[in-house]
Amino acid sequence: MTTFVPKSPYQNNFIWLWNVYRNSMQDESTLVYVNGQLLPRDKATVSVYDAGFLSGDGIFEGLRIYNSKIFRLSEHIKRFLDNARVLEFAPKYTFDDVRDAIRKVVEANGHLGVNYLRLQMSRGVTKSPAMDPTYSLFSPTVVIYPEIKEPIYDKKGIRLMTSHIRRIPPDALDQKIHTFNKMNSLLAKLESNRYGLDDAIMLDKEGFVAETSTANIFFVKGDTISTSFPNACLNGITRQTILAETPKLGYKAVEKNHSLFDVYTSDEIFLTGTVGEIAPVIEVDGRKIGSGTVGEVSKNVSNRYMKIVNEQGEVP
Ligand SMILES: Cc1ncc(COP(=O)(O)O)c(C=O)c1O
Q1: Domains in the chain, start-ordered, CATH in brackets?
Q2: Burial of 295 (0-12, 13-18, 19+ CB in 10 A)
Q3: Over the stretch 80-133, which tens digit does the pLDDT of each residue have?
Q4: Residues lining ligand 1, CB < 6 A?
């Protein structure tokens, strides 16, 4: 099987390439779940008439496995099913259907060191290419990709830029819908890749910070840790975990608006998300954040997060 090696978005190309090579070699043995079947990667396919391919009509979840258990499994399944309900995917899947499918994938791939699952559902196969949901013929298409995936951001600190591409406001598209159709985020990520940076901050239509292309964002000022309101950003499960956990570490945790003034004058900044965990930010738009190194608060928050993900996983 030929392996596609993506261009490195990181500063250290050698480590990135080595990880891509190592992971792709292991990934070749993984079995992908496609509508109830477990198939080798190169046999795992969906129809060219699938609504996900034709119109990005689908939803996803990323789940991490720690010590054979999945962190916040129930929350991920509930969010997935809520999204399917909002998009009126039919017939409906139950909590147990999704959990059973996940269990099947973990049982089939666990011994390979799989530590990340990508769960996707589209409206399914349609009778012809169109933006009409009534063209859909059967049930939704469900795919679960098992992965061996390192956290996507460098824990030694990442560099961001502010994208000129704004987030979609909730009156145009409710950002709680966890769709894989995120063209504006993709354009923002392309922009940051072009400048050799790790990701891009996206503002809402008022000019307040929403999130990056793939992660929520937190700011530290004194003993206060703050993040955007979940209006123009996803209400991430990691975000909710950090808001609940940081007061236990002695910090005040709040949701508020942040302009670029607040970004540049923060003591520390970090990103949150299942795929990248807690990622300290050391530079935005060429300006150092705080001392320009990973700050103490970010370290404390990250340590706390790694402790609870290892303690509070659920067996699927
Ligand atoms: C746009 C966006 N923001 C934030 C997140 C982080 O969400 P979570 O913490 O639930 O993984 C994701 C994850 O997929 C995302 O796609």
Answers
A1: 13-147 (3.30.470.10), 158-314 (3.20.10.10)
A2: buried
A3: 999 999 999 988 899 999 999 999 999 999 888 899 999 999 999 999 998 888
A4: 62, 211, 214-216, 234, 236-239, 272-274
